[in-house]
Design brief:
It contains six helices and three strands. It has about 140 residues and is α+β, with helices and mostly antiparallel strands.
Length: about 140
């Protein structure tokens, strides 16, 4: 369903908010999960997860791409932080598109790219044997 916007406004408040956020930009030093995807458009995203007790504590990312990819990455982080890893597998590109409301139709691939990298990070996390607190303790 198309959102009715005020005259002259191209994007929803959700889109503007998520596209302008920069607080999650950057790599986590010791991520619990990592995923990277390169889109056909040339955009690249790396997703880093911090997980504790099976719950996603933080998502950060590095992007070489457009504002739409940034909006999608921030939306993903907003939607999954605080959720269990198991529950986070249910997030789809459509969830990002629905939340943003005004992601251009020719940039739906940005949502697919971000969710694809996130799934790789979840898979990477799942392949590791311990939560981060256990890894630190065992190294110690």
């Amino acid at each position: 369903m198309e959102k009715e916007l005020p005259a002259g406004q191209l994007h929803s408040e959700h889109f503007i908010d998520m596209a302008s956020r920069t607080s999650r930009l950057g790599a986590l030093e010791h991520p619990d999960g990592y995923g990277k995807r390169v889109g056909d458009c040339g955009d690249t995203i790396e997703v880093y997860l911090s997980v504790l007790g099976g719950q996603i504590q933080m998502v950060s990312f590095r992007i070489q791409g457009c504002l739409n990819t940034n909006a999608c990455a921030n939306t993903l982080a907003f939607l999954v932080e605080g959720r269990s890893v198991a529950d986070s597998w249910q997030v789809t590109p459509d969830d990002l598109v629905d939340y943003l409301e005004t992601l251009p139709a020719d940039h739906i691939h940005c949502a697919e790219l971000v969710v694809g990298a996130f799934y790789l990070a979840l898979n990477d996390y799942s392949a590791r044997p311990y939560d981060s607190w256990q890894k630190s303790y065992l190294k110690g």
